[in-house]
Every structure is written in C-alpha cells, then in structure tokens.
UniProtKB/TrEMBL annotation:
Pfam families: MMR_HSR1. One of its GO terms (molecular function) is GTP binding. It comes from Calocera viscosa (strain TUFC12733). This is Guanine nucleotide-binding protein-like 1. Possible regulatory or functional link with the histocompatibility cluster. The keyword Cytoplasm does not apply. Residues 373-427 form the G domain. Residues 52-61, 342-353 have a biased composition (Basic and acidic residues). Residues 1-61, 75-100, 335-372 are annotated as: Disordered. Keywords: GTP-binding, Hydrolase, Nucleotide-binding. Gene3D superfamilies: P-loop containing nucleotide triphosphate hydrolases (3.40.50.300).
Amino acid sequence: MPRRKPTSLTAKKASQKQKRAIKRGDTSPPPPAPAQRRKRPGHPSRPPVPGRAREEREDDAVKLAARRLESRFLKPSPSYLALSAERASTRPLRRPIPPSAARFPRELLFEDEHGRDLTCPKRPKWRYEMTKKEVERNEEGVFAKWKSETEGRFAQWLEQERESEGEGAGGGPSYYEWNLEVWRQLWRVTELSDILLILLDARCPPLHYPPSLQVFLKQLRPARKLVLVLTKVDVVGHARAEEWAQWLRERYRGEGVRVVMVEAYRHKAPPSTAEEPQGKRAGRRVEPFLPSEFRSQLVRALREAHEELKTPPAGEEGKWKCRVRRDVDWEAVERGLGGKVHQPEHREAERPPPENLDEEGEGEHDAPPEYLTIGLIGQPNVGKSSLLNALFGRPRVRASRTPGKTKHFQTLFLAPEVRLVDCPGLVLPSYVHMELQALAGVLPIAQLPSLPSCISYALQVLPLERIFKLERAESVEKRELEAKKTWRGERPVLDREEGGREGEWTAMQVLESYALAKGWITAKAGRPDVGRAGNAIMRAVAEARIPWGFGLPNG
C-alpha cells in the first residue's frame, strides 16, 4: 500500500484560493483529471451503471450554467479598505441625526448632464445567416468596449470627488454588473416584452431608476410602454409611498410613464390545531398576496398601456400595423386566473425583435403575436419574483431576501393570452457609492468587502445604537489594559476621551457593542466578532426587518 501523503497547509490554502477564484470567474478551471478506477486484487471491476455518466454530465452542465450567471463586481482597493476601517474606529458619529439625512440626496437625482453619460450596454444587430459564435463574438466585443468606457468614467468620477471633498471624505466605489451573461438576460426580456414593469423599492425609488436605464429603455424600437411599480409599500407606509408615487408622476409626466404601488405579502393566520407545526418548523410567517386595491391599479395601468399599443399614431392609420395581441381578457387577469407555465425556451420566445435585425431580415416574421408579453425588470432585491408570486396567490418562482436569487429569466402565463417574463436583477451603473447600494439591499451582504464603511453610512441615517438598545462598550484595547494584573513602573492612566467625548459613538463601537450583546466572540483572540455583527446589522437593514425609507428630496 503506498505511503499516505502528509497534509500541507500551504498547499491546502493555495487550493482553496484557486477554488474561490474559479467560482468568481477570475480564472478558468483546470482540465479534469483522467478517471482512474482502483481494482481490488481478486475482484473484477463493477460494470458501469447505464445512464450514470450522462446524468453526471448533465449535472456538471447545470452547475457550469449557474456559475456563468453569477454576478461579478469590482474590488475596492486595499488602501480604501484600510482607510474605511480607520474612519470607522476613530470618527465619532453625528448625534442627533439632522433632519436632512432622512431625505433622499438631491445630488443623486442627476438633474444636470452629470450622471447621464452612463448607459447600459446595447445588444448589437444580427442576421439570420450569422452563426451563434459570430453573434456571441459581436456581443463580447461591444460589451468589452462599453465596460472599458464605463470604468474610465467611474475612475474620473472618483478622482473628482477626492479632489473636491478631500482624501478622507466621500464613499467607496460604485458597483455595477460585470457579467455579460447577466446582461444578456436583460436583452432577451426587453426584446420579448411589449410592456415593461420597472420595479422600484419604495424606500429609495430614484436609486432603482438611474439615468443609464432610462437611456437604454428610450432606445428600444419599437418603443415599449413603461409602468413604474413601487414595491415594499408595507415597509415605508402608504402615506410615504403615495408621496413618492406622486413625485414620480410629476417627474415623468411628459413621457407617458404610469406609476402604481403594490404589496406582495400578508401575514399568515396562526395555526388552528395543535397538530399543525409550531415554532421554527412552521415555515414562513407570510404568504404571497396582492390586495385587490393594488391588483386593480396594476391591471388598470396594464390595460391602458395595451390600449395605447393598439392605437395607431396620428396620420398613420392606413399603413400602420399593430405589433401586439389585440384581444386580452383583462377581467380574467384581474381575477387572477392563471394556470399554464412554460419554460424559457418556448418557441414563441425565439421570435427576434425588429430593432435587432438588419434590413435584410425585416419582414420575415409578420405573423400576429400569440401573447401579450409583460416583462419585469429591476435591480436585485426589489421584489420581482415576490410580485409574480403575489399575482398568482401562491409560490410559483423562487423568491429570497438575498439579492440575485433569480439566475435566468422565467416565463409564466397569468392568463392564456398574457405572458409574464421575470428578469434577473442587475446592478445598474450609476454614480452612487457602494455604501448606499448596500443600504438599499442591492448588493449581497455576504460579498461586501468593506462592512465598516457600510455600517458607518447606515449610522448616518439611522440611530442603530438606539434601535438595538445597545450599551456603550469600551474598545478592546482598553479592556485588555484594565485586565492586566502586573505593571512595570507606573500604571498607565486610561484616556476616556480617546475616540471621542464621553457618550459619543463610533461605528466600530456600535459593532463591538452589538457583538457583545449577542455573545459573539472570536475563538482565538476572544474579541468581539465585529465581522459577524456587521453582517447581521446590514442584513437587518437591507431586508427591511428595521423599517426605514428616505423622504422626498428637498425642493
């Protein structure tokens, strides 16, 4: 028997580092090692099981496809990570919080030309004679050019902010989607759809409808009808959501954009019998539900948009051709009748859109459409899948509090002639710092590289130390100093004013106090686990377990 190879910690760390790089997509996986089957002496090898190899290949293909659709983002520089940790430890929080912090920053509305130079990548034109590799090569070239230009604009923006506000001010870089496969999902959904529902989190609606998305949607031909849907109304309250809805109607009055509000969940009734599961095994305490008032508003907006799509432009009644299905039973849609579920690779889904065809391919697909297609698009964690489940009144697609749960666009039928297409969430390019994106729940908390800076920003708008009822704890260094029993020379005097005046908080002190309150201590050093505390706090804020929401901007 061969000698067992000793364990090498260095090789193990290198292997784990390589696996993480392959999972992120930074490097390509190594070629598979040839399969070797060890034969026991005196025992013939077992015959292969029919179909097992094919099942293994199919599983590998599914895993590879899921990995290709994972979101990819940039990485902040090590200097910024060190600076953000230092500021979180030394900079005292401003208390009380000024009333202006509760309003959405007006500079993020991008009312001037600044901020409107960012765009979303547009799919290049293609012809039927082109092969799949040719189409993908063109898309990769266009995307690489767009990504290079966008990176240059963001680098210039960060440089200007450092010059105007100083080295220690401002926030981190802005995140946006780097994976071409995810952008291809948006291209397919916008190509298939006649009406687009753009979902906006009611806590900060302007953040979820940046100028880059507005420019991209205006370039679609033929033009799609847009409906802005305010989600999570139950988090901010009906009064605040109605204020944002009226503000959006005034802002986009001349563009024919409709605005509606929705709620996607309701609390379950408590179990009636002792046999029903209790406690943690009882499942979720909410269930998909769309109140009749909100369903009527949404169906009314869709019906009005459908009527406009059927109406020919003035002066073109004779030569104009309707490109959408004319007959739709909107009463059945409002009653919530839906039963058919189709896979994304439906034959009708392969019908190419007019705007992506060259002149040679026009006129080859003039058959009237079989369905009215409604697409749902938006950033991660705005509630697209939750709204779909609420429309059906039961879970039909997977929904999660973690951003990026949906990986591939999904096709369902709300009625025999109405098709819904759910697009995966995309982090859209916008001149917004990473901290605000994390606060809004756009970014996955587990992948945030700079939790101290995100907590610092959240503490600028929310008194988390009061919400969690924390007791101010001294820093770890002071506790270690007091715990020493022997001293050489004079015992040092603790400076109680270090890190701020008595009663002032820093972001790191909030993390330490929360960790101590939960009993989270690191195993080796015995210090408060600030990483786990920051993760828990950001999840509570982003997942709306702590209700919050920006008010209308000043002016």
